[in-house]
Structure formats: C-alpha cells, structure tokens
Amino acid sequence: MATPRRPAPGLLYAALRVFDLSLGEMLWSRRTVFMGLVVGLPIVIAVIVRIVLALGAPGLRLNGTAVNGPLMFGLMIWAFYLRFSVPVLGVFYGTSLIADEIDDKTITYLFTRPIPRGGVLLGKYLAYLACTISVVLPSVVLVWLLVTPVGSALASNFIDMVKDLAILAVGLAVYGAVFAFVGAAFKRPLITGLAFVFAWEPVMLALPGYLKRFTVAYYLQGLVPQAMPTDSPVALIQSIFREIPTLGESVVWMGAFEIVFLWLAVRIISQREYILEQ
C-alpha cells in the first residue's frame, strides 16, 4: 500500500520556520555589530549632554531659544533615527535577505526544500524586523531617559516617546519591505538601496513638485507627532521640507508601500530562476 503523500507546508508555516532559523543567525551576524554602532551614536551624545548639564553648564540655545529635553529628544529622533538609522538599517538588512544567499551560493539549497519560495523571504523579513526592533527601540528609550529631565516632564512626554517608538517600527517595516524588493529585483541591490536613501530621497524632498511622493521619507515625516514643531528651532533644520502629508494620507501610503513591495518581492522570488555563477 502506497504511503500517502504529505501536503507541502503553507506559506505562513514556512515563513515561521525560516524566521526561527534566521533570527539567531541575524542577531549574531556582523550586521548586528554595525547596527549597534549606528544606534550607539545618539546614546553617546545623550550621555555627553547629561554629563554637561549635571556639571552645571548652561543649556544649549538656538537663535536665543533654550533647547529643553523634549525638544532635544525630538531633534535626535529626527536627525539620528528617522533620517539616518532607520533607512540605513533597512538598506543593509533588507537588500541582504536574498542577496546574501545568492552570494554564499546557498539559495538553491533553500529552494529545494518542500516549502513555498515566498515563505523564505517572508521568514527572513520577519527575522529582520525582530532583530532591528529589538536593538533600535531600546536605544531610543535610553536616549529619552538621558535627555528628558526627571519629574513631571518625564511623565508628560512619555506618550510622545511611545508614539516615536511606533513610528520607528513602522519605518523599519516599510523600508525593509522596499529593500527586500530591491534585493530580489536588482543585481547590485546594496548600491541601488544606498542611492535611493542618500541621493533620491534627499533630492526629491528638497525639490518642489510631486516626485517627493515616491519616497518613504515623505510619508514617514507625516507620522511624527512632536519631532517637527513649527514654532521652535527644529523648524530651521526642517525648513526645506515645507510640504508635509496629513496623518491619514501617510498611514494609507505607508501601508500600501508595505503590502505592495512585499508582494512584489515574494512574486519575484517565486518566479525567478537562479543560476549561480561558478
């Protein structure tokens, strides 16, 4: 009597299995060391600021206006995290989800397993999210504790800090999806991703017109609750980004980017034939 053939595992099951295998590998990779250096810089700056203030030095002033703890935290969220750490980590992790397997010539071994190809990408994407969120968000909390004075200000700005954590998690998710597609579609994905982050997005945001709508940063800045006040010195830094989308528009488009680019990445992975060079 013939043994009944076991059905192939579904997409979600395959993604969870690949996630379980990939998470530990990502956490102990050289990229995690790089990620620690990226998010460690604002912590070092926050420690220096805390020490300087503890020694009784006068507070920082911009254009005659005192920069308090919440405002400084907003500056650091905008400059160090939203405009640098989140997109850079998205590039280095997102483009490597499949590209590393191609470079190491292990992708054919993954695809010979009886699981959907798309599950490999989704599992690695979920591992990227877990890895980056577990490192980036605690660093934000530490910076907030260092630069925000103890007392009523600490409690009153807690909700804004939680909103910032959610926005950073959304940014990591969307940039990761975009660059997962780049890694699946382009032969040199890292170069393409860096060009997108450091050339395309800054130029499009600075120019008038509709092309800025083809950037993730344009909609990400529309989610920021307090990092872009218009009546403070922060406006000097952000004056070139005059047009800001509404919160609803930003949510809709960020969700669309996430779904569309992940779907495209899965579709490419599922249909492409990979012939490894000798």
Brief characterization of the structure:
With 278 residues, this protein is an all-alpha fold. It contains twelve helices and two strands.
Account of the 3D structure:
The protein is 71% helix and 1% strand. Helix 8 (158-185) packs across helix 9 (189-206) and helix 8 (158-185) packs parallel to helix 12 (247-271). It has helices at 11-27, 30-54, 69-94, 96-103, 107-111, 117-147, 152-156, 158-185, 189-206, 216-220, 234-237, 247-271; strands at 61-62, 65-66. A two-stranded antiparallel ribbon has the order 1-2. Mean pLDDT is 81; it is low at 226-238. The protein has 278 residues and is mainly alpha-helical. Strand 1 (61-62) and strand 2 (65-66) form a beta hairpin.
Secondary-structure map:
Elements lengths: L10 H17 L2 H25 L6 E2 L2 E2 L2 H26 L1 H8 L3 H5 L5 H31 L4 H5 L1 H28 L3 H18 L9 H5 L13 H4 L9 H25 L7
Antiparallel strand pairs: 1-2
Helix pairs in contact: 1-6, 2-3, 2-6, 3-6, 3-8, 3-9, 6-8, 6-12, 8-9, 8-12
The number of distinct structural domains comes to 1
Element order: H for helix, E for strand: HHEEHHHHHHHHHH
Strand order of the largest sheet: 1-2
- The number of helical runs is 12
- How much helicity do the residues have? over 70%
Q: How widely separated are the two ends?
A: 44 Å
The value of Rg in angstroms is: 21 Å
Helix-and-strand structural type:
mainly alpha
Overall mean pLDDT: 81
Largest sheet: 2 strands, antiparallel
Strand content: under 5%
Q: Please tell me what the overall shape is.
A: globular
**Secondary structure: number of strands:** 2
Uncertain runs are: 226-238
